[in-house]
Write a structure and sequence with these properties.
- The complex is a heterodimer of chains A (about 525) and B (about 325).
- Chain A has about 525 residues and is an alpha/beta fold.
- Chain A is built from 18 helices and 22 strands.
- Chain A has a 6-stranded mixed β-sheet with strand order 6-9-10-3-11-12, sandwiched between helices. Chain A has a 6-stranded mixed β-sheet with strand order 18-19-20-15-21-22, with helices on both faces.
- In chain A, strand 19, helix 16 and strand 20 form a beta-alpha-beta unit.
- Chain B has about 325 residues and is an all-alpha fold.
- The radius of gyration of chain B is 20 Å and the shape is globular.
- Chain B is built from 13 helices and 4 strands.
- Chain B has a two-stranded antiparallel sheet with strand order 1-4. In chain B, strands 2-3 form a two-stranded antiparallel ribbon.
- Classes of the chains: A alpha/beta (about 525), B mainly alpha (about 325).
- The interface between A and B is large, with 47 and 35 residues.
- Bound molecules: adenosine-5'-triphosphate and magnesium ion.
- The site of adenosine-5'-triphosphate has 21 residues of chain A, from strand 2, helix 2 and helix 15.
- Adenosine-5'-triphosphate binds next to strand 2, helix 2 and helix 15 of chain A.
Chain lengths: ~525, ~325
């Protein structure tokens, strides 16, 4: 058997089935960006095909072309041997191609059930069968093993739960080909396990899966084959059994990384902030201290109250009881403004809703917190505005044609870099990073962790929230575990095992956790 | 990773300028066409008239644009103009010095704007609703104050101002420059201008970045109220009477000017020069249609069609950029 893909890539390629979808010379240009240079790739039916690559490598663009969300610039797509135009999402769905996109694209104001059947509503004589739809949706959700109600409004769920609903939605549409674009970015380990079970089950049913992720261990756990994109070019495809972490990273970024989790230990200085028996919406009776030069990690499931806790410290929400001390003195933080004046900075968890002004330029977003500093009483210094923005773009390697490009035109990971980057020039003393590396590629992650070190060395303190245990485990000097709004355990650096921490966060025995978390 | 050099040019700014130039070209084209088509259009008298009429809408459109950039809308401005003519007329007739009458009228505009800010920020009312409420009640209050009559202003110094010119250009047009230049600096070169954009784009993200969202909203509506009250003073001077029912429908003209000038009703997109040009384009169309004896009903239809066409092409180019 010969195929173009095999000739191009000498590594013998496993054949789980016939070719279901083939791309020849697929190309996409955005104004100012050549996002996808001609790509040849073939997907075999029933395989799980991972796609990895740096932020802005073109992964999401590829998916958008396959699902008809955007028109391609040139190239051919063959579906089961027939040329396919794939000009509209409708056409893609009719063929059985579905996707769970990187950013949840569902209607937040509708119920879970309404979202699941959106566009394929169940109606009789033009009247929606609402109750029947809720019942059906609930059956599907239960069947998938997700512990979620079908009648609630989608917006009331966490981003992770919404992502699960998006996955459930995609499975009910006669899917033959299902694409996941960084599905686990906002999922807890438990939710991720549920998703993996679902993916394996779909594979068992003969569905072809594309799986995009920045987490190598997931790729190795799930995939049969893996393709690497770099700068819009396909660097290669490998059978998963014949490659390893280091090789993939090398292919992705064209250099090797010795150490992702770059940890420097500093002697902690004076206390910056202290919470004493603090309670508020979503958490109660939390006490902790953050000192200069240390990273305090908060681990827990999404919804465990960590984000609510830090946003209360930051003045976004009112505390209901307890005290906040800043540098040893009790303070009232009534607004974000107060918090920023004291010297806090918050990079929030949802870049779309809280982090970015999407329809404004990259440079604007980066400068937003510091406009006061870079202007005199009246005017903004336009030179400073330029140099500050360009410095962050260079430091964080934000991939954008210019600082004037709109934030919405950047890839997901690059948008995340803006959320972090806008605080780096601000000169805060306490940095709160809520899921800072969601969707960020491995090279940039290493870069961000190095930046943490630089902040600490200047005497700053950091609160790091992550649902990705390895991250907090490797970086936090003090690790607090949250469960259902309470602080349930505290550990020093590497003082407890992954399993113990997970057990504390879940408070139930996890039978199957696997080696890598 | 290929770290590309970061080019220095600013596509957004270029785009703004380009769009402004297109509008200017459209305006000039209209002027040339009308000068050819009619004998009276290019006359000094008619041009002065056109500038006077356009100036008032232009100033309102600037204030309106600030509000629209934050993602809001100010439907009250026409009513504020009418109300302001009453306030300034009553005060002048009551013997107060002109400067004081003007100052108080402007402060009334500020107060109305603050009230809108209060309704939106503190009471959580949608901008559409609170400014719609002010629109009807201000006309009512004005009618109560005047018993439904017009007030003839008995100061010639006051009314002369808007009829006079300075170096050949009507005073009213100088007022556009007086408002336009600070407005331009404010919107495009000060941090408060940036905050208007950021609030219009994503209020929550702005808040978390330390922007005082509430104050920004207060500011936008206050400036809109102030501009409208100022136009009220100019209008009272121009026609010499105070009457609360004047300037009927001007809010729609102000919004139309703003939108023709490239402001997005979704917020976060807009400029100062765009609405100014938009206002004069509208004024030219009305003026030209009058001279060509086009039925005034048709004028409204043409205006509507023009809004659709200009905004459609603007949207096309924005997307195609
Ligand atoms: N709508 C758009 N307009 C202009 N450029 C775009 C647009 N969408 C994406 N791009 C550019 O195309 C390139 C590829 O983006 P893409 O979203 O495919 O990256 P990705 O591999 O999915 O990255 P990430 O891991 O960060 O999600 C990036 O340089 C991005 O800036
Ligand atoms: Mg992506």
């Amino acid at each position: 058997m010969t195929s173009t893909a095999q000739e191009l890539h000498p590594a013998p390629v496993l054949e789980p089935g016939r070719t279901i979808l083939e791309l020849r010379g697929l190309e996409k240009r955005y104004p100012g960006t050549h996002a996808l240079k001609p790509v040849d790739l073939a997907f075999k039916s029933g395989e799980i095909h991972a796609i990895v690559g740096e932020n802005g490598a073109g992964k999401s663009t590829l998916i958008k072309l396959l699902t008809g969300v955007m028109p391609r610039t040139s190239g051919e797509i063959t579906w089961e041997g027939q040329p396919a135009a794939l000009a509209t999402p409708h056409e893609a769905m009719a063929l059985g191609i579905n996707a769970v996109h990187q950013e949840v694209v569902l209607c937040r104001h509708l119920t879970v059930a309404a979202n699941m059947f959106l566009g394929e509503e169940n109606s009789r004589f033009g009247i929606l069968q609402q109750r029947a739809m809720v019942r059906q949706a609930q059956t599907i959700i239960d069947d998938l093993g997700f512990d979620l109600p079908a009648h609630v409004t989608l917006g009331d769920l966490t981003i992770g739960q919404q992502q699960l609903i998006a996955a459930a939605r995609a499975t009910v549409r006669g899917t033959k080909f299902l694409i996941f674009d960084e599905p686990t970015a906002y999922l807890t380990r438990k939710e991720a396990d549920q998703l993996f079970t679902l993916i394996r089950r779909l594979k068992g049913e003969g569905v072809t899966i594309i799986y995009i992720s920045h987490r190598m261990e997931e790729v190795f756990e799930l995939a049969d084959r893996v393709s690497v994109l770099r700068d819009g070019t396909l660097v290669g495809t490998r059978n998963i059994a014949e490659t390893n972490d280091a090789e993939l990273v090398k292919m992705m970024i064209n250099r090797s990384i010795e150490q992702v989790y770059h940890k420097e230990h500093f002697t902690p200085g004076a206390a910056l902030i202290e919470a004493r028996n603090l309670s508020g919406k979503g958490f109660e009776n939390v006490s902790m201290t953050v000192r200069a030069g240390e990273i305090v990690g908060l681990y827990g499931l999404i919804g465990a109250g960590r984000s609510e806790f830090v946003t209360t410290l930051y003045g976004r929400h009112r505390k209901s009881a307890g005290q906040i001390l800043w540098e040893g003195k009790e303070v009232q933080v009534n607004s974000e403004h107060d918090a920023i004046k004291l010297g806090m900075a918050l990079a929030p968890e949802s870049r779309r809703d809280q982090g970015l002004c999407l329809n404004l330029p990259v440079g604007f977003n980066l400068n937003l917190p510091i406009y006061k500093r870079i202007s005199n009483n009246l005017l903004i210094s336009s030179t400073q505005e330029k140099t500050q923005a360009d410095r962050q773009i260079a430091d964080l390697r934000i991939k954008t044609p210019t600082r004037g490009a709109l934030a919405s035109s950047l890839s997901g990971g690059n948008q995340q870099k803006i959320v972090i980057g806008k605080w780096l020039a601000h000169g805060a003393k306490l940095f709160i990073f809520d899921e800072p590396t969601v969707g960020v590629d491995v090279g940039t992650k290493a870069e961000i962790y190095r930046l943490f070190g630089a902040l600490l060395s200047k005497g700053a303190g950091i609160i790091l929230i992550s649902s990705y245990l390895t991250e907090v485990y490797e970086l936090a000097d003090t690790l607090h575990v949250f469960r259902r709004g309470k602080l349930v355990a505290t550990h020093g650096f590497h003082a407890a095992s992954h399993e113990d921490i997970l057990t504390q966060a879940l408070a139930e025995k996890q039978e199957k956790l696997g080696g890598q978390i | 990773m290929s770290t590309e050099a970061i080019p220095v040019e600013k596509p957004k700014r270029n785009y703004n300028v380009l769009f402004g130039l297109t509008l200017l070209a459209l305006l000039v084209l209209l002027w040339i066409l009308l000068s050819v088509a009619t004998t009276s259009f290019a006359s000094a008298n008619n041009m002065a008239n056109l500038l006077r009429q356009g100036s008032m809408i232009a100033i309102m459109a600037v204030g309106q644009t600030f509000v629209i950039i934050t993602g809001g809308i100010d439907l009250s401005v026409g009513a504020v103009v009418g109300f302001a003519t009453v306030v300034v007329a009553m005060m002048i007739n009551a013997g107060f010095p002109i400067w004081l009458a003007i100052l108080v009228t402007l402060l009334v505009g500020v107060a109305i704007g603050m009230f809108h800010g209060f309704g939106i920020v503190k009471m959580g009312l949608p901008p559409f609703i609170i400014t719609l409420a002010t629109l009807t009640s201000l006309r009512g209050i004005g009618l109560l104050m005047t018993n439904g009559n017009s007030i003839n202003i008995n100061s010639d110094t006051f009314t002369a101002f808007s009829r006079n010119s300075f170096i050949g250009i009507p005073n009213l047009f100088w007022m556009v420059i007086l408002v336009g230049i600070p407005a331009y600096i404010f919107l495009h070169h000060s941090r408060w201008g940036r905050y208007l954009f950021s609030v219009g784009s994503n209020a929550e993200a702005s808040r978390l970045s330390g922007v005082n969202v509430q104050r920004t909203i207060y500011m936008a509506y206050t400036l809109s109220g102030l501009c409208a009250a100022f136009v009220g003073v100019l209008l009272a001077a121009r026609i010499g009477i105070g009457n609360p029912t004047q300037a009927e429908g001007w809010e729609l003209q102000a919004i139309a000017s703003s939108v023709i000038g490239g402001t997005s009703l979704f917020g976060a997109v807009g400029s100062v020069h765009g609405p100014l040009l938009g206002a004069f384009i509208l004024a030219t169309i009305n003026n030209g249609a009058n001279l060509l004896n086009v039925n005034s009903f048709w004028q409204r239809i043409i205006t509507g069609a023009l809004i659709i066409i200009i905004v459609y092409f603007d949207g096309l180019r924005r997307r195609g950029k």
